């Protein structure tokens, strides 16, 4: 990178870290029940404060803030990996139907396994979502081998998403009333009901995947220049493609398993970071996408909670409101340059 590019990256990362900290504490501070900053700090640092405030912070707001930070970042990195794989900035887990495949699989497990046996676990949800995400991704890859036109491939991904969503709707329609209550808000995308155990579980999975993705940054840098170039410098292209899909699917599955499908973060955030940083280098874009995805998700969740409080809207309504215009701008810009 040039000297100006390095300065730009430093400024952007400082701003992103500042925004992450601010958005995180805003999510803990702001709610239907007013709790002062002093009391929040006492609760977080020393475990003090009155019982009611401590329960609200420790059991509701803190787990939710951790989940929005971790999973928002995970979704953005998942989108970045898919965009690298398909060499298209409009590719993303929501658009390609991968999130819908994961949603369908989790809905099936909740209705047929959990309701029948009463058994559920964080690992089961993530593994089930991963299977659904991989199934949807497998169809996309099969179609990509026959269809070279990226617009047609994206349209096929959208259709797969519709099919998976239709199957999920059928399952919800004929499910028991007790299952529908749990499935309804989740199927729309919501961080409501986040627990600390789920937050730490997802944080561990995302951290492991992020380390793996960062270790692949040099490989991704070569891969984005084309498969021919990557092969010419000794990279195993087939293995790289498999790793890209698996890592992206794990991140997307982790998000869908715990909060349901969340739209547009996986597409809009990596594009914004490319525009802001004026760089396509994975070593910079991966952490930048994670931090900005976390900020985007935390702010969106805060708005979802507070815009019509005490009624909470699903987070995808907010992310779509801000993310869709960015994608439209991206398509127009791509059309002019292409």
What would the keywords be for this entry?
338 residues; mainly alpha; ABC transporter involved in vitamin B12 uptake, BtuC; 14 helices; globular
Examine the coordinates and then state which fold CATH places here, giving the name of the CATH topology. Answer: ABC transporter involved in vitamin B12 uptake, BtuC
Radius of gyration: 20 Å
Total count of helical runs of at least 4 residues? 14
- The total of beta strands comes to 0
Q: In the CATH hierarchy, what is the architecture at level 2?
A: Orthogonal Bundle
Main sheet specs: none
CATH homology superfamily name = ABC transporter involved in vitamin B12 uptake, BtuC
* Secondary structural class: mainly alpha
**Helix-strand topology string:** HHHHHHHHHHHHHH
Low-pLDDT regions: none
Q: What percentage of amino acids are in beta strands?
A: under 5%
Family: Belongs to the binding-protein-dependent transport system permease family. FecCD subfamily.
GO biological process, one term: siderophore-iron import into cell
Membrane topology: Multi-pass membrane protein
Keywords: Cell membrane, Membrane, Transmembrane, Transmembrane helix, Transport
Can you lay out the helices and strands and say which pair or pack?
Elements: H1 3-29, H2 37-46, H3 51-86, H4 98-117, H5 122-146, H6 150-173, H7 177-188, H8 196-215, H9 217-223, H10 227-232, H11 237-259, H12 265-277, H13 282-306, H14 315-337
Helix pairs in contact: 1-3, 1-13, 2-3, 3-8, 3-11, 3-12, 3-13, 4-5, 4-6, 4-11, 5-6, 5-11, 8-11, 12-13, 12-14, 13-14
Protein name: Iron complex transport system permease protein
Main location: membrane
Family: Belongs to the binding-protein-dependent transport system permease family. FecCD subfamily.
